[in-house]
Amino acid sequence: AQSVTQLDSQVPVFEEAPVELRCNYSSSVSVYLFWYVQYPNQGLQLLLKYLSGSTLVKGINGFEAEFNKSQTSFHLRKPSVHISDTAEYFCAVSDLDAGGTSYGKLTFGQGTILTVHP
Amino acid sequence: NAGVTQTPKFQVLKTGQSMTLQCAQDMNHNSMYWYRQDPGMGLRLIYYSASEGTTDKGEVPNGYNVSRLNKREFSLRLESAAPSQTSVYFCASTVETGPNYGYTFGSGTRLTVV
């Protein structure tokens, strides 16, 4: 992918409210798509991924994302957030070759800090 | 526990000093990567290794060297540290294809260069 843009650098939300974290990418080829979460002072943990098949992907902790090829987007959603969801979220993309195999390298967005208030 | 192990977790260097960041994975992955994370910039690829014996530059390789010692280990070396290399460094590995494709990250090395 040439670039990955996370449209919001910070998203504040109240507990039990729904949330959407937006991700757009630019690529001239087919892609794999990922969302990772990073809790303070920790490494990155895979939330969910789209490799093929259904464009609606469900992940851990009640998160889901929808791949929209025509809009080159992969927005992350959760219908009701908890305090424990406070973290930084990263969208990432891997280009595929003509045979549908990943080149291996992930391009990351700049990150979105989700802060859940009581 | 299976995963990616990075050492050290924290390091403070003086400008001009050298050091090596170590990374090892026990998942039998061929592909390994080094990224740096800076506020507001996400993660940027420094170097990667698609298989034992091969290494390639990523987006920000200047000032770094790498060694793929064997299939398990992939080290990152700073020959002459600069304040601009203050960052959090992450190592990752993955299978190349299939339903299990996706990075497993280490817990990171927080490096400060003064």
Structure in words:
The complex is a heterodimer of chains A (about 120) and B (about 110). Chain A has about 120 residues and is an all-beta fold. Helices cover about 0% and strands about 55% of the residues of chain A. Chain A contains no helices and 12 strands. In chain A, the strands form 3 sheets. In chain A, strands 2, 5, 6, 10, 11 and 12 form a 6-stranded mixed β-sheet that branches. Chain A has a 4-stranded antiparallel β-sheet with strand order 3-9-8-7, with no helix packed on it. Chain A has a two-stranded antiparallel sheet with strand order 1-4. Chain A starts with a strand and ends with a strand. Chain B has no helices and 11 strands. Chain B is globular. Chain B has about 110 residues and is an all-beta fold. Chain B has strands spanning about 5, 10-15, 20-25, 30-35, 45-50, 55, 65-70, 75-80, 85-95, 105, 110-114. In chain B, a hairpin with a 6-residue loop joins strand 5 (about 45-50) and strand 6. The model of chain B has no long low-confidence stretch (mean pLDDT about 95). At the A-B interface, strand 5, strand 6, strand 10 and strand 11 of A face strand 4, strand 5 and strand 10 of B.
